[in-house]
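Quick one before lunch.
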Amino acid sequence: MFWYGEKILEELKSQFPLQDLFKSLRTPGKHLCLRVNLLRASPEEVIDELEKAGYRPYQHYLSELVCVRVEGPFEIPKLEKFVVADKRAAESVLMGADLYAPGLVSASDLKSNEEVSILAERTLEPVAIGKVLVSEIPRRGKVVEVIKSKFKAPKFRELRAFEEGKVYPQGALSAIAVKVLEPEGLVIDMNAAPGGKSFYAYELMKNKGKLIAFDISKKRIQKMKEEMRRLGHRFEVIRTDSRYLDLDFPELVGRADRVIVDPPCTAIGVIPKVWDEKRDDDMINAYKYQIQFIKVAHKLLKKGGLMLYSTCTLTKTENEKVLGFAQELGFEVVERDTPWGKTPIKVNPLEHGEPGFFISILRKV
Ligand SMILES: C[S@@+](CC[C@H](N)C(=O)[O-])C[C@H]1O[C@@H](n2cnc3c(N)ncnc32)[C@H](O)[C@@H]1O
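Model of the S-adenosylmethionine complex:
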């Protein structure tokens, strides 16, 4: 079920057959990918470990992107006994993750070792069958171990290569967005956490350029720093409101060769979804927020410097309209080749079997 505001529906309808789009948003992308940490490993050794673990990996789009197909959909019955998971947990369980206490919304009387269906809250759609591990609802820890889920995703976090920081699970779109920016010189990431784009920009520069990453969220920065330790990355991460970088860090004004703006958005392209709800105001407020980063990015860039503006949503307001704003401000659109066509490009699950994602490169004139 998709509860979207009228304006959002209008914008989606003008680009896609709506029912087909909703169906595609309920399905995961065709694969999940690992980006090989170029400073620590080769694609070959990662492929080798994946094969030994029983997967059938393939390099896709870039030699350092190693992907594994998502299997499914499988039929999931609705058993008499069930537990209900919140949206976020249900979307993970749908892909094969176990259910943990924070994601549990309600449960019929729990009996250890009993088989239950895991249902998504609101729609009560069964997303998996699992075995109950507890006899009363705990405050934390695993509650249901999944036996069979609607889709089966590779368990990348169990690999030795993951533990050793040789790989970072990253969507192909997110990686390609950074690749086409061609990071060099001083790179400023204005919305960096949890870090996927920063990590790749850092690796592509091979210690030659300088990266400074900013984000406002303490929790997300904490997670990013943990990942940096795992990957062996060393660059500055600063907690701040990037809408005021020009005022708080005046020494950066006019100095950046590259800026990454990957701001909060309505995330309509993030898949799979068990359901979604977005009001028109969510989209309009997101637009107002997004253009504030664009204004500051323009101030930070050198003349001729490049900005990556990307989102994981499909609305025109948050993509094409933001681009229009940027052009009025003094940016020009740069065409770069991607596996799906030239930038600016909106990749979508219907046509491409990938999550919805917008990539644009703009030059400060
Ligand atoms: C789409 S996520 C970024 C994902 C990240 N670029 C990556 O590839 O992993 C958007 C980020 O913007 C951050 N954010 C939101 N408002 C912000 C602000 N005013 N200043 C800086 N960061 C902000 C959020 O905390 C969130 O981490």
